[in-house]
Write a structure and sequence with these properties.
The chain has 89 residues and is mainly α. The chain has a single domain, classed as YggX-like. Strands 1-2 form a two-stranded antiparallel ribbon. Strand 1 and strand 2 form a beta hairpin. It starts with a strand and ends in a 14-residue tail after the last helix. The mean pLDDT is 90.
């Protein structure tokens, strides 16, 4: 049976992650409070941020920015959307 969590992003009970998706305290909080579906939503958001801002995951400043956005996405007012971003129809 899969682990269920009360997902902070979806505001409902949903299937939880199998393990912490990120190291440290933030990864632990996401594991305990976010669903698999919400994590997939974050991965799409992260990809959009990386593409629009041309971020490199090996640059420490870029990683810090993405971590801050992850915190906002799950536990704050939501991650930002770049001004020039236009979603595909």
């Amino acid at each position: 049976m899969s682990r269920m969590v009360n997902c902070v992003k979806l505001n409902r009970e949903a299937e939880g992650l199998e393990r912490a998706p990120y190291p440290g305290e933030l990864g632990k909080r996401i594991y305990e409070n976010a669903s698999k579906e919400a994590w997939q939503m974050w991965l799409q958001q992260q990809t959009m941020l990386m593409n629009e801002y041309r971020l490199s995951p090996i640059d420490p400043k870029n990683r810090k920015f993405l971590e801050e956005q992850m915190e906002k996405f799950f536990f704050g007012e939501g991650a930002e959307t770049p001004e020039a971003f236009t979603p595909k129809p």
